[in-house]
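Example 5.3 — ATP-grasp domain-containing protein
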Amino acid sequence: MYLLFCSDPLNSKSVDIDYREEYEVARSLGFDTGLVNFDNLIEDERERSGANPYIASKNMRENVAIPGSEYVNALYRGWMIRPKVYDAWTASLEANRIRMLTSAESYRNCHYFPNSYSLIQNFTPRSVWLERDQLDAEHIREAVVPFGTTAIMVKDFVKSRKHDWLDACYIPDASDQAHVERVIRRFIELQGTELNGGIVLREFVPLEFLTLHPKSGMPLSKEYRLFFMFGELVFTVNYWDETAYETVPTDLQEFIQIARQIQNPFFTMDIARTQAGQWIIIELGDGQVSGLPEHTDLEAFYTNLKKAVINRGL
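Solution (predicted structure tokens):
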């Protein structure tokens, strides 16, 4: 099985500097690797604006460098890709005998928050969402009514702007319509062309406080990122680099049972402990585009990933 990493924007034969350490560790452990021209993917998206998103362009067919002609399985480790681009790209790779373990549908299931909400809703803060064509004052007003005067948070289908905590993320009172609209409009403005899907509004649940982020001032809480491969937990890591805290509890059976229902071979589950001592799910993410904190033991991560791949016979 191949691991596909983003190439350097200035040298398609070298790995992107931000993924170099991961790339080198993976290779040292025996993974076959390939390089993805991420800039070509983005350029293809621009060129296909208004066209059928499921038709692969010429650039997409040249988008990954793997020697030889045999049929291979692959996973991607790189920058986030919009689902429609991932769909067209994987179809193109399939035509060239490269099968991504994560299908386009599986990618969307974990990359877009609304797609996974039904599976985790009993373990995550109450959430509603608006599509891109519903971001007018009337739809926003209706969406926040169920939250009453509760504090809420704003994100799009993929990401929040948590480091713009007060301006474009946190709303202390959902009934304050002017404040709600101001934060949402600022969020949309800051996201610009990077806005994914639509807007998600989530009930703010106080988490076990650790410290304030040294740059943005947002509250940092006891959060962890869990990586799952084929439904099995393969790695856990503290979410934040900015402060030290103990590792995640060993009793994760409830979350592991949920993970086995997720239709994605390689994904992440971010969890946190509330001030009341309850463990909750923050969100899911596709494992291919989920970041690893700087303090991650990369050798342990890729060793566990390799074991999962070998056990699957890949």
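Remark. The domain at 207-311 is CATH 3.30.470.20 (D-amino Acid Aminotransferase; Chain A, domain 1).
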